[in-house]
Amino acid sequence: MNRRAFLKTLGTGAGVLAAPTAATTLLARDAAAASGEQLATLYDLSKCIGCGACVEACREAHASDYPQPKKPFPKMYPARVKAEDFSDKRDIDDRLTPYNWLFIQSATVTRDGAPVTVNMPRRCMHCVHPPCVELCPWGSAVRYDNGAVGIDPTICLGGAKCRTVCPWGVPQRQTGVGLYLDLLPAFAGNGVMYKCDRCQTRVAGGGKPVCLEVCPEGVQTIGPRSEIIAAAHALAKATGGFIYGETENGGTNTLYVSPVPFADLGAALQTGPGRPGLHAAADVMGKEQNLATAVLLAPLAGLAAGLLRLTSRVKTAARKEDDHA
Amino acid sequence: MPKERFPRWQKRLLLFAALGLALTGMGQMPIFSRYYIADIPGLGWLGDYEITAALHLALAVVLLFVLGMFVAGWLGKGEGRPRLTAAGWQRVVLYGALAVTGLVRVLQNGALPLVEPLAVRYLDWTHLGLAMGLLVFAVSQGRKESLRRSRG
């Protein structure tokens, strides 16, 4: 096969990729989400009074999961690598930290000429296609079958890639704890990343996330994703509300319904490290979907090209034999 | 003059893809930014996960396509194919296992998760270990022929 034939075959492969049937099958990346196995939660923000009972309960329930770093921290190289230490600021509860996986974000906006204050419990959105999980090079970020996303503190090295690729910058780092201390603490790793795991242990045991259980206003409900989406739409329709989390980052397992548009809320919020915004987050992993499909088809296309090459050789040999006959 | 079994340009394409995959694979870990490599003018993209992940997939398409061609050519020779040397077998195992673990990871992120959530780490570590193995192989055995010389 010469270069021209190679490019031609590659072109055929690209044509196959564009064929709707193959693409549809391989792009069925939401099959798991639609199967009913994934659980999602719905926040009716019109009910949230911002009392903080959920935050308090979360801190109590996860107290034993919080990092206990050793000090002084090992020196890290090069000098640009900074320690992130919240161990002396464990009381902070107005942002996400390694010691605070849920906080209440409040914003006041004007609606029909009157001020409206909306309180939003904020934590990991538990994406259907979480970039933190799909891009973690170490396998420490995990998507459970029930739709929750967690980070295993026993193997996380604290590289913080998950925070970089998360549309909301959710995972938070604590230096001086974790596996990196046993490897090359000076040259690789920087602690462990922490975030909400939607009370994986409680839910696996048949319970519910503690924030949901303690809420005095019944703000949050949990159920199969398809049912939660239907409930969110019904609520939004009945109250003239707005939905966030259904399509953001290609879909999440956390849906908020608010009486005011999220764009208005987002503009009024204080955002920054540990304080996520309410932007229209693009689908991070969806951008790679066509390339991923091409990867799956490439070996087959290569085999087909190789077989074509063999066939053409056999034909050429047969023709030569005829010529010599 | 008989045609080469695997044309040189295909082998060069494979080498280009393998080197690119090694570089972009390293880029999946947060090291290029930490160690100032992404600060070198023109190499800033090495510190951008979105770019390195997309390039890793694109180069994997090239590598898997060429590997597929090699496999078809090899199997198609039937009984007449030359035997592999020890270095040849090592190449087959290393590239084959890297390709399989990579493909399983792509499926895991997509429509067909085959690995239990808490076992994905072993898949990632195996892929990384194989890449390191290929690097060691390339440095120590890289110039050795894969095919035994046919007699006569």
From TrEMBL, chain A:
It comes from the Bacteria. Keywords: 4Fe-4S, Iron, Iron-sulfur, Metal-binding, Repeat, Signal. GO terms for molecular function: 4 iron, 4 sulfur cluster binding; metal ion binding. It is found in: Cell envelope. Residues 39-69, 114-147 form the 4Fe-4S ferredoxin-type domain. The keyword Iron-sulfur applies. Coiled coil: none annotated. Residues 1-18 form the signal peptide. One of its GO terms (cellular component) is cell envelope. This is 4Fe-4S dicluster domain-containing protein.
TrEMBL record, chain B:
The keyword Membrane applies. The chain crosses the membrane at residues 51-76, 88-107, 119-139. Keywords: Membrane, Transmembrane, Transmembrane helix. This is FeS-binding protein. It comes from Solidesulfovibrio aerotolerans.
